Amino acid sequence: MKILIGIDGSASAATALRTAEHLLKPAGREMNILCVAPAYRHGPEHGRQEYVRRILNETNRILEKARRMAARDQKLNLLAEIGSPSAVLVDKSEDYDLTVIGPRGYGASSDGGLGPVASRVAENAPGPVLIGRELRNEDGIRILAAVDGSLASVHALEALRDLFNLSSAEVCLMYVTETPWIQLGLEEDWETYSEEDQEKSESGVFEKELVREGEEIVERARDLLSGSRAAVSTRMSEGNPANEILSEAERGQYDLVVVGATGARDLKHRMLGSVSAKLAAAAPCSVLIVREREELG
Description:
The structure is a single chain. This protein has 2 domains: about 1-130, 3-Layer(aba) Sandwich (Rossmann fold); about 140-295, HUPs (Rossmann fold), CATH 3.40.50. By secondary structure, it is an alpha/beta fold. The chain has helices spanning about 10-25, 50-70, 85-95, 115-125, 150-165, 180-185, 195-200, 200-225, 240-250, 270-280; strands at about 1-5, 30-35, 75-80, 100, 130, 140-145, 170-175, 230-240, 255-260, 285-290. The protein is elongated. Strands 3-2-1-4-5-10-9-6-7-8 form a 10-stranded mixed beta sheet, with helices on both faces. The chain is built from 10 helices and 10 strands.
């Protein structure tokens, strides 16, 4: 298991490293800590050599600090490059099982959201990306996995099963049924219809179909995690997927949210693919984002 961890000397990157070590399976992992120094862009050409010397010294200092912080019972490699941090991380991520990055880089404010490097990596890296934030539970890990039956969400569950230590984890599989007027362009006063009229209407039939499909999807997701030793529960919700998942992540005090980077593009699933960026930016915990493998390249 090859892990790439981007680090820049910031507290955010240090937290991401510690969180990744805690969440990932300890056996057979190879941690590759990468510090990318910005390229020399301004000033006279004769100053380039001195800049490179100084920036590499600073890069080596950051890497050595990360080495001291990292767990010692694992294979550890220190890597240094000069260039665009986001471009280098995106380019290298294809060769790793997982890329880990903090939500905010060096010098950024402590406000929420993602910094520019984290945003570009989360959006463009072809492999799985973990946005690492502080853990919220001292005993055990609580994981919220958004599922919709798409290849992206299936691959996300497979990455969770294969890379993360689930031996003492609680995993909640969450399926969100989108409200009918979002799907069919109905007015929101559809909810004021009588229960009988709702059930007989086109939207009512469609909603029942979504619920049945959701139950089947959740059961298939549960099968994917069988044998993982995780305590698996399920949750069905209705509404806007991004809002529902974020609300549950906060309410349930989860340590990790898992989501596919792109969902199916049909009518029933068009929104889950769009929420991965919202979750990465606004979730109160770490977020694992996994793309559909067919989209790689």
